[in-house]
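Predict structure. Input: TSN36 protein, 168 residues.
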Amino acid sequence: AAAGLSYVGGYVINTYKSYDNFLQDKYALLPAVIIICVAVVMFIIGLIGCCATFRESRVGLGLFLAIILVIFIAEVSAFVLGFVYREKVKNDVQGTMRSVFEKYDGKNPESTVVDYLQEQLHCCGVKNYSDWTTTQWFNSTGNNSVPRSCCRQDVKNCTGRLDQPQEL
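Output follows.
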């Protein structure tokens, strides 16, 4: 379990590099760091449990049980806090994404990240393609279209024009 959690934490940190422009709050990596710390603690606790079982130590097994109960209470608390604050996190991420979309000009690093995100997630905009109609890039281009990264991958010669939403 500790190795699995270590992998998940490392994967999240590695994946974060692709989306760091959207997650300007550096505390976004905190869950991944916590997961890695939990993995280290789980490894140590598992080692204590194995040693206590091997030596048939009542004190060691009692300590192991107490530690497992504390971890269980912490997991339930984390689940409840995640459930309670899910809307706040959702609104914060959407607000940050909107600000990055507002900086889109087709050339800067934020634009590259937006294009990458839309291509990888097969999406367009924060909620849908109509989000682009309020951006500065959309108003400055004057061609009534969204970036080509909004185009479906199976459509050839997509221009991103809003009069052909079936291609987006």
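The longest helix spans residues 58-84.
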